[in-house]
Amino acid sequence: MSGPGKKNGVKEKVEALVSFAKGLDLSEVMWEEGDQKIAFTRRPAPPPPPAKPAKPSAPPPSKTQFITAPFVGTFLRAPKDRPPLVVEGEEVESGDKVGVVEAMKVPRDVTSHVAGHIVKILVDNGKPVEYGQKIFEVEVK
To answer: Measured between alpha carbons, how far is residue 130 from residues 70, 74, 75, 86, 89 in Å?
Structure first.
């Protein structure tokens, strides 16, 4: 016996069962009454896509740079019997002579490659230095 009234009743029952399943967060429902059977499975909502990892923020460019030893030798803050070429807190320009490294009695200039002010002198006068060793810490302008 199928007629428009019967289809309407089934539709109403299905809608009621769907509403019931949603209300209880059921994923599967089976209903039987006499010769009528209704069963359905709700597909769970797909999981949200994984969150994109936050891009690590690049650290701000360092305002501190180092003047390094151009070769192996003895670091001198000034040529013999002279006052130091620079002191902590003093401003320097790129190309300024800031010290001397002496190797085999031959002095060679250490020059600044940046403009800024000397934050710290990292090597004591008369101490040996290695190639590339940090001698001055400079806060760049």
So the answer is: 8, 9, 10, 21, 25
